[in-house]
Structures are given as structure tokens and as C-alpha cells.
Specification:
Layout lengths: L18 H10 L3 E6 L2 E7 L8 E6 L3 E8 L18 E8 L10 E5 L2 E7 L16
Antiparallel strand pairs: 1-2, 2-7, 3-4, 4-5, 6-7
């Protein structure tokens, strides 16, 4: 297959990169979106090829959401000849400090088609109580 960038210095494969750097890449490449809707904070992480048993979702230190896991390296056969290694392997971990209004005891997580979804419900905002005061005179 024709690769128009073949031979350029920025296209080196990970085969020449030390395994420790590839593991760092796994941490950095775990992309997570965080959006807030009126009733919850929603986190979505792309974790292709991982099973739910290989991922951990935890709340620690009060209000820190931690998503971690490990993408295992494929078994290599002695006669395998690799042409390109671009998928990273190794451990990954992302941490997010949750806001004060997060209901950390009601966090739910699900995983479907390689996408982890974590829903952190929010406490209802207490509307300030307004008391009308009669004006005398």
C-alpha cells in the first residue's frame, strides 16, 4: 500500500520506541469527554478492544473520579514480522475532581461497543428562599 508520508521523520513506528514510552502513550491517548447537563455530569471514554472487566471506575478522596485499566499487549509469535505498530498498550488512568454538587454515592457506569459511559448525578440546586416583607407606614 502506498504511504505518501513514508520516510518522513515524524512517521516512525512505535516499534523503535521503548516500551515505557508506548505505555505513556496509552495513558495520554485515553480520550475522555465530560459534559454537564441539568441533572448529571456525563463522562464518555473511548476504550476500543477493552472488556468491562479490564476497566475500573472509582471515586476516591471524596470527590475524585478515577477511570483506569490496562490494554494488554498482543502475544507475539517468534516468526511474526511486524510492519507497523500504532496501537498502544499498557496501563492508563485519568482522574477528574468532581464538583461539590456531585452525588458520589449514586455514580453509575456502563460500557457498550468500546465506549465507557459514567453518569454522576447532581444534587438539585437549592433555590434561595424569598420571603416577602411587609412595609409598614
Amino acid at each position: 500500500m502506498f504511504d505518501p508520508f513514508e520516510g518522513f521523520p515524524f512517521t516512525q513506528t512505535l516499534a523503535n520506541v521503548p516500551s515505557s514510552a508506548r505505555e505513556t502513550a496509552a495513558i495520554a491517548n485515553t480520550r475522555i469527554d465530560w459534559k454537564e447537563i441539568p441533572e448529571a455530569h456525563i463522562f464518555k471514554a473511548d476504550l476500543p478492544g477493552l472488556k468491562k472487566e479490564e476497566v475500573k471506575v472509582e471515586v476516591e478522596d471524596g470527590r475524585v473520579l478515577q477511570i483506569s485499566g490496562e490494554r494488554r499487549k498482543e502475544e507475539e509469535e517468534k516468526n511474526d514480522k511486524w510492519h507497523r505498530v500504532e496501537r498502544s498498550s499498557g496501563k492508563f488512568m485519568r482522574r477528574f475532581r468532581l464538583p461539590e454538587n456531585a452525588k458520589i454515592d449514586q455514580v453509575k457506569a456502563s460500557m457498550e461497543n468500546g465506549v465507557l459511559i459514567v453518569v454522576v448525578p447532581k444534587q438539585e440546586e437549592k433555590k434561595p428562599e424569598v420571603k416577602a416583607i411587609d412595609i409598614s407606614g
